[in-house]
Design a protein that fits this description.
This protein is α/β, with parallel strands linked by helices and 158 residues long. The chain is built from five helices and eight strands; from the N terminus they run H-E-H-E-E-H-E-H-E-E-E-H-E. The protein is globular and about 45 Å long.
Length: 158
């Protein structure tokens, strides 16, 4: 099955960065939510990587959260050093080139400083959006860190 243009863009980025062994797959069902993605691949919700875009005065940030967690706004502020707000769907598309529900952790129009939810490190494999609401890619947390340059942080709301 050939990939849609957005999923192909993510696959090309992976290949250009030397991670061509990682494969974006498009599934017949929606993977827009963490729950849908987990069901589609037989994973735990915690293994799903949510790519959340937030904005502050100094710029935009990417938070890579475990599917089971919510981002704590005060921890996001501590991580970035400034107050941040969730980007609108239009801002997300402008910054990343992807629509909400399919935003991958990599290959964005604008490279964003990234922060990784430390809970993702507990899994041998995680699943992230691959450019569309039906595309996913599986990778290790170590590969995710290498590709995004993310800082690991305690980000979850308790």
């Amino acid at each position: 099955m050939s990939l849609s243009p957005s999923a192909k863009k993510v696959q090309r980025f992976l290949e250009e960065k030397g991670f061509g062994h990682l494969r974006v797959v498009e599934l017949p069902t929606s993977t827009r939510t963490a729950q849908e993605a987990a069901e589609a691949v037989g994973a735990e919700v915690g293994q799903i990587v949510k790519s959340l875009v937030f904005l502050g005065e100094k710029g935009a940030y990417l938070f890579l959260m475990s599917g089971k967690n919510r981002l704590d706004p005060s921890k996001a502020q501590r991580a970035t050093g400034e107050a941040v707000r969730r980007a609108t769907p239009e801002e997300v598309r402008a910054l990343t080139g992807y629509a909400i529900g399919g935003v991958p952790p990599v290959g964005h129009e604008t490279p964003l400083p990234a922060f990784l939810d430390q809970d993702l490190l507990a899994y041998p494999l995680v699943w992230a959006a691959g450019g569309t609401s039906k595309a996913l890619l599986s990778l290790s947390p170590k590969e995710l860190l290498a590709l995004t340059g993310a800082q690991v942080a305690d980000l979850k709301e308790v």
